[in-house]
Amino acid sequence: MSEYSKIYFLGIGGIGMSAIARYYKFKGYPVAGYDRTPSDLTHALESEGIDVHYTDDIDQIPKDIESTLVIYTPAIPEDLNEFVYVKEQGYTLVKRSRMLGELSQGQTCLAVAGTHGKTTTSTLVAHILTDGGDGCSAFLGGISKNYGTNLLTSMTPTIVAEADEFDRSFLQLRPAIAVITAMDADHLDIYGTHEEYCKAFRQFAAKVTGRLIIKKGLPIGTEDTKARIFTYSYDDAGANFHAGNIHVDELGHYIFDLVHPKGVIKEIRVGVPGWVNVENSVAAAAICLSHGVSEEGIKKGIGSFKGVKRRLDVHVNAKGLTYIDDYAHHPQELATAISSIKQMFPGRKLTAIFQPHLFTRTRDFAAEFAEALSMPDKLILLDIYPAREEPIPGVTSEIIFDKVTSGEKVLLRKEELMDYIRNEEVDILATFGAGNIDRFIGPLTEMLSERVK
Question: Which class does domain 313-451 fall in?
Fold first, then answer.
């Protein structure tokens, strides 16, 4: 990148884009960019000295074409004026996924792919390496609560990457060690069929050079990769890596023994709640053990892990009132998060608020969403967050709502939510979704905290 003196981002507020922006700022480059709406993340970038603007304005783009590198995300619209301008003027354009692939070249890349679990697992891998290993650089798909950022930097030539299957981005990576957590159908607007989606994961598997660790039962075999294949599981003793002797302490934290090919690590206490984080810990430990981290380092890192913002993120937890937020936006993620919450707080009433993300995902998985959203005691369903999509005739939240079988359910516009909750008795409240439902976290936390004073 020495031939460029400025780095400009289109869609700088995205979680993956912002990590790369922070990386170049760390390396001493002038960094600037556009995003459609302000957010906590863009405000954080601004506080770190990165120029961010929110109007589609070509005058904000550096005019020295030869020395400006433009990095973009496929989430931006094709007709964005700034995007059209940089293409017409001949700027060097690089897609985010290719940039991540280039940044990982010449380093030992540890990657986590999968329909769900990849953000928490990759963040935990990065934390284990930082807290109990030799360190790493990491480009994460969420904000680590241990470090308050989605970027870690280190002189150690090891890079941890969340390998995102959206737009086939993960095919730009060549990991030495990789985990695949799940291959449930998603992003069918990109892939068309579940079969094509799985084919992309097999193509990713073919790029792994050392060890490939897959969730037991996934349809990937030795014909798909030259890497050595290992399996992991929550508690299936037939997997190479699995949890045994699972129990819960008095504070609700899971404790387990990690069974691995060379022995057992006894009494690992998971630093974050929820049974799903036992499974994530097994996957992260499998990568880190394969990379050479000591058993003591594994145990220490899992125990001191504080989690990821918006992943089973507890904001209020008092007697008789709990508020949890989670990024779940796929039916299986919702089912996993809801079952984890119900297991953490048995016998209590769970009210779930869900904002569907994308018209295509709502259309493709309406029945599966309804099944997962029938699990809480009460459902509050919001209108669809469109993100990059135009509306699809006949596709609204009602196609999920009508199929939900739980006794209590209500359909609201997001503008009505705060007034509704203000007049509602809640025991456990949980917000779910990948859209702008995160804007409610602060106001809901404030409102519910007042009730327990």
Answer: alpha beta
